[in-house]
Specification:
Strands 7, 8, 9, 10, 13, 14, 15, 16 and 17 form a 9-stranded mixed sheet that branches. A 4-stranded antiparallel sheet has the order 3-2-5-6, with no helix packed on it. By secondary structure, it is α+β, with helices and mostly antiparallel strands. The protein has 8 helices and 17 strands. Strand 8 (99-101) and strand 9 form a beta hairpin. The protein is elongated, with a radius of gyration of 20 Å. It has helices at 9-15, 21-29, 88-92, 121-125, 145-153, 186-193, 224-234, 241-244, and strands at residues 7-8, 33-35, 38-39, 45-46, 52-54, 57-58, 67-72, 99-101, 109-115, 133-139, 156-157, 160-161, 166-171, 174-179, 198-206, 209-210, 219-221. It folds into 2 domains: 7-58, Roll (Structural Genomics Hypothetical 15.5 Kd Protein In mrcA-pckA Intergenic Region, Chain A), CATH 3.10.290.10; 64-253, Pseudouridine synthase.
Length: 253
Amino acid sequence: MTEPSQYRLNKFISDTGFCSRRQADKYIEQGLVTVNGVIAPVGLKVSASDVVAIQGKPLKDKPTRVYLAYHKPVGVTCTTERHIKGNIIDAIGYPERIFPIGRLDKPSEGLIFLTNDGDIVNKVLRAGNAHEKEYTVTVNKPITANFIQKMASGVPVLDTVTLPCRVSQVSKNTFKIILTQGLNRQIRRMTEYLGYDVIKLKRTRIMHVRLADLRAGQWRLLDKYELAQMEQLVQHSSKTACDDNSNPQDIEE
C-alpha cells in the first residue's frame, strides 16, 4: 500500500496561502497550530488528509495562486499586521489573503510583489539566488565619479561589505543601482557611509518585471508571460529558508 505524501507543516500552511513559511513557523512555535486536534510540534510532517487548524480555525483548501505587482507609495508600511496604520494589505484592498515578497522601507516607493504562494517567497528573496532589483535614487548633493565607483565596488555596512553591483549616474544628483542583495536599508546605509543622504528612492524593477507606467498606489496581476519567466528564473533557486535552515535577506531599502 502506498504511503500518502507528507509535507513539512510550515510548507503545508504556506501552500494554502494563509501566510509565509516564516510566519507559519512562528504560529507553530507559539502553539497556535493543531493537527487533528493536537497541538503541533515544530518539524511535524502532515499529509493532505490531516486537519490543520490555526487558532482553532481549519485551513481552507489551497487557493488559486495569485501574484501582484504593486507600486508602493511613500508612507505605506510593508506589513500584514492590520492594526498598523497604513499597512500594505489595507492599502491594496485585495479580496483574498496575500502577503508581500520582501519589503520596501516606509519612506521609499516602487515595485513590490505580493502573493499567496508561500513557496516562492524565499526563492525570490535570498541573495544567493542573485535575482536583480533595480532602483533610481536621488541624493542631497552632486554625485562624483568616486561615489559611483565606491558604491559599485562595495561599501562597509552592517558588519559586512556589500557585494559588487552596477551603478550609473542619471543626473547631477540621481543614480541607478542594480542589486542582488537585500540588506536592511542597504542603499540608504551605503550612501550615508559615503556622506550622502537619500532624498528619494524608487524601485523600478524586480528580476524581469518593471514598474513601467504603474502609478503610485496602483497594482496589477502579473501576466502569463511574466509568470512563465519567473518560473524559469526561480526553478534552480536555492530551497526556501525553512527547508535548508538558512535565512533569506529581507529586501528593505
